[in-house]
């Protein structure tokens, strides 16, 4: 069931363990990234287990890389860069499709940077 993110009006099914709250609360992925929450903070509503899909279950997670990645100064660009990393990390049946998705994310980031005049 979708609920409103506690930080913005986005409807989400994702719940995260957030400091100051006793139970997991609804947080959209964009706000989770901006607040520094990771997959380790993600919890299911029903059983509060961590949710790490098998195709991301590796020693280093994409969000771990995002924490050390230098910011472009544009949240949209940074989110698309992280999305591209996530698609490159995944181990699914169709790797070509994931690489095309990663390229789509990078193309969107490049277009946004050009519009905003970011070098």
Q: What is the structural class?
A: mainly alpha
pLDDT under 50 segments (min length 5)?
45-50
Estimated share of beta-strand residues: 5-15%
Number of helices: 4
Sum this structure up briefly:
The protein is mainly alpha-helical and 119 residues long.
Keywords:
about 10% strand; about 120 residues; 3-stranded antiparallel beta sheet; 2 domains; mainly alpha
Structure notes:
The chain has two domains: 3-43, no CATH class; 55-116. The chain has four helices and five strands. The chain has helices at 29-34, 62-68, 75-89, 95-116, and strands spanning 3-4, 11-12, 15-16, 25-26, 42-43. Strand 3 (15-16) and strand 4 (25-26) form a beta hairpin. The relative contact order is 0.11.
SSE order and pairing:
Blueprint: E1 3-4, E2 11-12, E3 15-16, E4 25-26, H1 29-34, E5 42-43, H2 62-68, H3 75-89, H4 95-116
Antiparallel strand pairs: 1-2, 3-4, 3-5
